[in-house]
Amino acid sequence: MSFDIVVVDDHRVVRDGIRAILTRDPEFRVVGEADDGAEALRVCQETNPALVLMDISLPGVNGIEATVQLVRHFPNTKVVILSMYDDERSVMGAIRAGARGFVLKQASFGEVLNALRVVARGGTYLSSSISGRLVERLQRGSLDAAEKGPLDSLSPRELQVLRLVAEGKSSKEVATILKLEHSTIRSYRKTMMKKLGVSNLAGLIQVAVAAGITTAPGTAKPST
């Protein structure tokens, strides 16, 4: 038995690499690709896959938002999130959105294939480093407290913008990455400052680092 799968990532070279690995495994058949969340929804409507391997950071409709819509409109399609980030906020956001798996981009292809197999057969999968931390938090009874933080008031899109800003991207660069208007990103920044009670870009970055959504902030470009 083979499982139809759609691969979603905004980098062509990543999609090509994943496709090359999957085509060598008779359990999987790549039936479509997409480079953003909106296109992923269109491709899934055309192909009705069993699985979607979804990058969490996508331009336009991001991976979390796309997962929410996929689960709602295609209940038989299971989503496995592929992410560079292993912070609890990203993981819990993916799980709440309905993803059945969460694998780090640093993982081996063997682990990615294993995650897809587990999820395709009805299970759930988290990369070992993530599941270990969550178990520790549960055992200490601190997971609920960890979920409540200064960024809880932000929308998934605002969190995506904040992460990019904290990595040193200017508003113009963020707009290009997310395929949004420059004015829209500036509006997001202003809204986030108000929600988080800070008055400038440095304050935004400080909150992002303290909350753990970025570990290596870049030098922010204030012009925009």
Please describe the topology of this protein.
Layout lengths: L2 E6 L3 H11 L5 E7 L2 H11 L3 E5 L7 H11 L4 E6 L4 H10 L3 E4 L4 H12 L4 E2 L1 H13 L2 H5 L8 H11 L4 H8 L3 H15 L4 H11 L13
Parallel strand pairs: 1-2, 1-3, 3-4, 4-5, 5-6
Structure description:
The protein has 224 residues and is α/β, with parallel strands linked by helices. It folds into 2 domains: 3-139, Response regulator (Rossmann fold); 156-211, Winged helix-like DNA-binding domain superfamily/Winged helix DNA-binding domain (Arc Repressor Mutant, subunit A, Orthogonal Bundle). Helix content is 53%, strand content 13%. It contains 11 helices and 6 strands. It has helices spanning 12-22, 37-47, 63-73, 88-97, 109-120, 128-140, 143-147, 156-166, 171-178, 182-196, 201-211, and strands spanning 3-8, 28-34, 51-55, 78-83, 101-104, 125-126. Helix 8 crosses helix 11 and helix 10 (182-196) packs across helix 11. It is globular and about 55 Å long. The relative contact order is 0.10.
Question: Main traits of this protein?
Answer:
single chain; 224 residues; alpha/beta; Rossmann fold; 2 domains
Total individual domains: 2
* CATH architecture descriptor of the largest domain: 3-Layer(aba) Sandwich
Q: Total helix count?
A: 11
Secondary-structure content class = alpha/beta
CATH classification class of the largest domain: Alpha Beta
Q: Biggest β-sheet: count, sense, barrel?
A: 6 strands, parallel
